[in-house]
Amino acid sequence: MTVKPTLLQDLPADLERERLPRHVAVIMDGNGRWAQQQGLPRIMGHRRGVDALKGILRCCKDWGVQALTAYAFSTENWGRPIEEVDFLMTLFERVLRRELQEMKAEDVQIRFVGNLAALPRSLQTEIERSMSETRYNQGIQFTIATNYGGRQEIVQACRAIATQVKQGLLDPDQIDEALFERHLYTAEISDPDLLIRTSGEMRISNFLLWQMAYAELYITETHWPDFDRSAFHQALAAYQQRHRRFGKV
Fold first, then answer.
1. Is 115 a catalytic residue?
2. Of 29, 31, 147, 193, which is the active-site residue?
3. pLDDT tens digits along 2-48
4. What is the four-CA torsion angle of 66, 71, 72, 78, rounded to 10 degrees?
5. What is the CA radius of gyration of the chain?
6. CATH fold group of domain 24-147+192-239
């Protein structure tokens, strides 16, 4: 008897395609703890974390999730040891340079959100190139939140709107949710339907504070480097058990 192998692009039978989240956001926690448990330097956890992210991006694309947003580096992460921060900046740059051609071939549209002007100039160059060269891709929207903070994002949006009011270009009565959202980093990105946080932490850590208003939260004890297709399947299955009422009965 010949058993047909399960292809990666095959959606698991217990998942309903029409009930998949359109947009999944991930807080990739536990890289350092994973490395320590393996007796490895923390930086090895970050390297393995990149592989895990690539796997989940592939899974999203193959299963029909339209958008994936990853919290790569927060505004608070600058407080980590300088050696780790420097390694992360170099890792981001190296991965972008190495993976861009494959991302283009896979029809991935790359976006970065956050205060990108504070990043190393060489990394900014790679970011600008990756966004420019994939801007017309339509396979999946892949957003990387880098030097991102939800409070900072809201403050900068308020400043931009206040400046328009001060210049007489905008009447305060015109300010509503839709106008406010147009001034966020994520202006052209839909709100997440599902937030996944690994490593068991029960908080959103200043991530997409406005956009998470009605996202479903899924917390797993699994460290990010071990978060694979099977773990993602479990998260989606749990999501499809939820009843999203959006404040209604």
1. no
2. 29
3. 334 444 468 999 999 999 999 999 999 999 999 999 999 999 999 99
4. 160
5. 19
6. Undecaprenyl pyrophosphate synthetase (3.40.1180)
Residue 244 CA to its chain's centroid (Å): 21
CA–CA dist 200, 139 (Å, integer): 31
Pairing of strands 23-27, 194-197: parallel
Pairing outcome for strands 67-74 and 108-113: unpaired
Q: What is the pLDDT of residues 203-213, one digit of tens each?
A: 999 999 999 99
For the chain, what are the domain ranges?
24-147+192-239
Q: Are 236 and 62 in contact (CB under 8 A)?
A: no
* CA proximity to 67, closest of 121, 18, 26, 114: 26
Q: Which residues contact 54 (CB under 8 A, 6 or more apart)?
A: 99
Concatenating the DSSP letter of every residue in 147-205 gives EE-HHHHHHHHHHHHHHHHHTTSS-GGG--HHHHHTTSTTTTSPPPSEEEE-TT--S-T
Q: Are 50 and 91 in contact (CB under 8 A)?
A: yes
Q: What is the pLDDT of residues 91-123, one digit of tens each?
A: 999 999 999 999 999 999 999 999 999 999 999
**Catalytic: 137?**
no
Active-site entry in 10, 31, 77, 228: 77
pTM for the full model? 0.92
Tokens in use for 25? 């956001």
